[in-house]
Amino acid sequence: ESSLKVTGIDFLKSQNTRQHHTDGYNIKNLVVRRGQPFQVQVSLNRELRAGDKLSLRFGIGENPVKNRESLLSLKPEREDFHGWKISTVKKNGKECLLSVTSSPNAAVGKYNLHVKTGTNIYKPENGVIYLLFNPWCEDDVVYMANEAQRKEYVLNDTGYIYVGSAYSIYDRPWNYGQFEEFVLDACMYLLEKSKLSLTDRRDPANVSRAMSALVNANDDRGVLLGNWSGNYVSGTSPMDWIGSVTILQQYYKTKKPVRYGQCWVFAGVLNTVMRCLGVPCRCVSTFDAAHDTEENLRVDVYLNERGEKLNSLSLDSVWNFHVWNDAWMKRTDLPEGFNGWQAIDSTPQEQSQGRFQCGPCPVKAVREGDVYLPYDSKFVYAEVNADRVYWVVKKVNGKDKYFKVGTETQAIGKNISTKAVGENRREDITREYKYPEGSKEERMSMQRAYSFIRPVGMAPHPGYASTMETLGRSIQPLVPKEPGTKTGLHIEITNTEPLHPGNPLEMAITVRTSTPGNWTVDLIGSCQLQYYTGKVQANLGTIKETIKLEGTSEMQIPLKIAPDAYMKTLSSLEDEVLILVTAVGEVKETNDKLTKETSMRFEYPPITVQMPETAKLYNDFTCAFIFKNKLNVVLENCKLLVEGLGIFKMTTFDQGDIMPGRIMKSEIICTPTRLGEKKIVAKLISNQIKGISTEKAITIT
């Protein structure tokens, strides 16, 4: 009597991965999603008989044991084990086809499969199976009903991250690359590093929180080291990345934090990690996002007497933009009504429960003002709902005195943006985070939020903050109004010519009054260069004018900055900078004051990509990148960065200096290794410009 032995096992990879939407992963092993059947074919040394014992054993972790549910022993005759099911599809001689369905709330991770027959144990080659979250399965908490959304938020491996300023938003193409080689392994390594228990690994809320901590290197030697100093010699400048793949591959290879990231890089990498693990995820950009407000819902901006913003006094800041992520899930840990998108943020800003992590915070909780809900909802609420208060600092008898020159209650958390589903355009999702400004719902939501957050009093709080006294909530006006001025004073800041580096910056401040009477307006205006974090890098020039206006009328005051005033600074900075214009108007007759600021970005000539619209798998084609320097300035140390997922790895071309009027052309021979629509992303950086990027699609047949 020969004992039953397994002679081989076929994981039926192409059939299983197609059904599980995992055929994109570039990995030898079988990758499947939880709660959905997959099949394996077991070959035996003889036919199965009535008394034979056969079981599939799935083990997770270092030393799997049955009672901890880290070892699942599935026997075809005993169908259900901890929510996992197994059945015999058909027996055919020595072949046995089995169907396995994991539990829709199984722990996500790597499972080792052994087959036990009697006392024999068969350990197959590549017997590690990767189990992911399943947005296609109705019983999984990450279930997403809409197929177009699943395609975008789970399967799309490219996208755009929106940056710039509220005045001029632009898209930065980003390769998420969740299916590339070693990316899934890097995510599994992060899961192991997270030390989450198997129970915690069932829940995307715990997994996404852990990943928001591990994508930054701050307290756990995670993936990326943040750096906003402007000095990146010991690593890669945050501006030089065009996707997550190189970062995650390098991290997985070295197990050391990769240098350096800023918010869009953290968000790009976290988006890759979540999509890779099977949680629907999107990058979300908020323009004029408040930071470090210590939850008092107020950001103070200090100006000198010339109207220039001062860095030194501000503890808190308004970033021109900030990028985080929304992950999609049911929140089983919360009361009804908070399912759907959850904000998570891996940019290290402040600690939450002792680690640099943020979220998941229900987007609906932010909108409704339910800021007591976990996790970090007060912090996220403040980022999109704070007020901005302007102070002018004047010397009076040798001492600094603070004069309030304006309050903006609707300036923070504007144009919240993400890439549209199935289209290459920006979708505005501000309405998901906030009710319309001034609506009844917004007032209700704000009153709710204020009952959980105790804002401090309205005295200025400069650096040493000793003068701060906390006012009781009763004194805090619940619905701050935009200060209505008696004169209807209105200030608008625009550029009158395109803002090309090397040209004069030509802008205008328009001052308007709209009530009868003769008005004298003292106007101060300044132009500065600042990082997207609001940190001023250079003062470029100021104006001071007194204007006479009558009734409803306006006057435009030009503000012009010569190239010599800013080109040297621009060329010496490693980061992209924005042009900040601040204007303070004061009406002599009524003492009305109003402050307005606008950030604008430089405009650059485009890169064009030339290549065929379609190509055949494994057949070479040529892709050309063309750039004409239409600026009046030499672009020094030009580098062209290109990457095409499924076509070629990230490549850098050194282009040297490109003279005004000159054309640069680079060609790359491409060999497509994967079918479907693929994108090529290109970015040009030089000393003078940091942010010209483009992308183009090609269909591989």
UniProtKB/TrEMBL annotation:
Cofactor, free-text remark: Binds 1 Ca(2+) ion per subunit.
Among its keywords, does the record have Calcium? Answer: yes
Q: Name one GO molecular function term.
A: protein-glutamine gamma-glutamyltransferase activity
Q: Which cofactor does it need?
A: Ca(2+)
Q: According to the lineage, what is the superkingdom?
A: Eukaryota
The EC designation for this entry is 2.3.2.13
Domain named Transglutaminase-like: which ranges?
255-348
Which keywords are on file for this protein?
Acyltransferase, Calcium, Metal-binding, Transferase
Q: Where is the active site?
A: 263, 322, 345
Q: Which Pfam families match?
A: Transglut_C, Transglut_core, Transglut_N
Coiled-coil stretches are none
Q: Which organism is it from?
A: Dryoscopus gambensis
Q: Which InterPro entries match?
A: Ig-like_fold, Ig_E-set, Papain-like_cys_pep_sf, Transglutaminase, Transglutaminase-like, Transglutaminase-like_sf, Transglutaminase_animal, Transglutaminase_AS
Q: Which family does it belong to?
A: Belongs to the transglutaminase superfamily. Transglutaminase family.
* Name the UniProt record assigns to this protein: protein-glutamine gamma-glutamyltransferase
